[in-house]
Amino acid sequence: MVNPIEKIRKAYHDTVTELKKCTWPTWNELVDSTVVVIVSVAILSVFVGATDWVVRAVIQVLTVSR
Fold first, then answer.
1. Could you give the CA distance from residue 63 to residue 40 in angstroms, rounded to a whole number?
2. For the chain, how many structural domains are there in total?
3. For residues 20 and 6, what is the distance between their CA atoms, to the nearest angstrom?
4. pLDDT tens, residue by residue, 3-32
5. 62 located within any domain
6. Does any domain span residue 46?
7. pTM: predicted TM-score of the whole model, two decimal places
8. C-alpha span between 12 and 62 (Å, rounded)
9. Inter-CA distances, 66 with 55, 61, 63, Å
10. Is there a contact between 33 and 25 (Cβ–Cβ < 8 Å)?
11. Residue 22 region, left (φ>0) first, then alpha (ψ -120 to 50), else beta?
12. How many helices (DSSP H) and strands (DSSP E) are in the chain?
């Protein structure tokens, strides 16, 4: 039976080893990526809001009793 502390130590060691293999973004790359994400979210939210407004207006027109 393997000691649970040894399992934790091995998992920690493996994690640290894998993280050392990663390439981390520079500050400029991080800022650029963040701006892209924020702009994309803003555009998507405007699209979803406009679509919601149009669909709500169409449904309201179709369901108004005459």
1. 34
2. 1
3. 21
4. 889 999 999 999 999 999 999 899 999 999
5. yes
6. yes
7. 0.63
8. 61
9. 20, 10, 9
10. yes
11. beta
12. 2, 0
